[in-house]
Design brief:
Cobalt-precorrin-4 Transmethylase, domain 1, alpha/beta, homodimer, methyltransferase activity (chains A, B), Cobalt-precorrin-3 C(17)-methyltransferase (chains A, B), Precorrin_MeTrfase (chains A, B), three-stranded parallel β-sheet, Methyltransferase, Cobalt-precorrin-4 Transmethylase, Domain 2, 2 domains
């Protein structure tokens, strides 16, 4: 579905939603496309119900229905595409429609921080053990990647963003530009540009995407820009 | 502009192109939106003319024109956004419209290889020295990231993909799934799923995006899927 605002839906996405008999999704995401799902069977539920939603979608498809499962951002980047492909029996056909992922939406608001090599790391340790996230943050720091942090903090997970900041400060200058974007291209966007040394002073929650620069990232006319070696 | 097929253009992208007085871009990209730029001033040129195109766009904007600079994929990921922000004087306003990047488009064709943490690395050493690309490939391998390779090979750069494969084989099993997608969602898409040990037997060129799995990537019903720890 892309970031959330309907002007960032691709034509193809609108087309498949309109053709669907049933739409299945996380309730906050289904709400973003309410006007497109009138007169359709809609199955929506809360967080951590991903597996049940996928099973429900498969059940409806097995009844012969044309089913759309919606994810915000890109369904293939921390979205529903993987779980659906894991669970769907071979008699059913799955088509993945890519979207504008949160990294792209947040980057476009900040400037051009991802114009060169970057790494994307989710700080949620619900499905990935922290030891592995820790290893990846260290690797991304060593490689001087620009780094996008998804799911930086939630009500129940407060400290991961602090640990991540501490790890990255081993490799990156405290003055490295950091962009913090809340609700990127979804209603009321809020963006702050700060530094790695000061980022923990800012408001960060589960609707936030955090982008940390590499050693070539600068602030130019108020925008966060990673130089790519032109000139 | 997204991957290329117009059904993957966002509504916002179509709107700003239609509102523009002038459209500036790489000639192959402008060709993909020919029907949208009729009756507009169009400035298109070849590869390695990026800086001249940006300067031309700024010149037209300084004349008071509303100018759109197009990039395929996401303009903020190896696209034109960074260079434009570096060169544009503060009196002009720049808005970046995000798009579906090639990693998302290629992943959606292969299955869901990027459903967990991943790194994006361009193998082009025109603007980034090979020592840095080499360091990033090693870091991405150490971190067990799924890895997206942009610009894997061109007419003039043949060996970088071979070096990259050799580096990644230090960290990843030769049986690691690899997806190779040519022209992802742009006309005639061609996709192959192979392994890290055998990937160099496939056709790889500058229109190709290569995605290398992490240690949780499997082939399920012919699709490349990175497991994310559900169940």
């Amino acid at each position: 579905m892309g970031p959330g605002d309907q002007e960032f839906l691709a034509g193809k996405t609108i087309e498949v939603i309109k053709m669907a008999d049933a739409v299945v999704g996380y309730k906050s995401y289904v709400k973003l496309i309410e006007n497109l799902v009138e007169n359709k069977k809609v199955v929506s539920s809360g967080m951590k119900q991903e597996q049940k939603r996928a099973e429900k979608a498969i059940e409806l498809a097995n009844e012969g229905k044309n089913v759309v499962v919606v994810s915000s951002g890109d369904p293939g980047i921390y979205g529903m595409a993987g779980l659906l492909l894991e669970l769907t029996p071979p008699n059913l056909e799955v088509e993945i429609i890519p979207g504008i992922t949160a990294a792209s939406a947040a980057a476009s608001i900040l400037g051009a921080p991802l114009i060169n090599d970057f790494a994307v790391v989710s700080l949620s340790d619900l499905l990935t053990p922290w030891e592995l996230i820790n290893k990846r943050l260290n690797a991304a720091g060593q490689g001087d990647f620009a780094i996008v942090l998804y799911n930086p903090r939630s009500q129940g997970r407060r400290e991961q963003i602090e640990w991540a900041c501490e790890i990255l400060l081993k490799y990156k200058d405290p003055k490295t530009p950091v962009g913090i974007v809340r609700n990127a291209k979804r209603g009321e966007t809020k963006a702050v540009i700060t530094t790695l040394g000061k980022m923990l002073q800012e408001e960060i929650d589960m609707l936030t995407t955090v982008i940390i620069g590499n050693s070539d990232t600068r602030i130019i006319n108020g925008k966060m820009v990673t130089a790519r070696g032109y000139k």
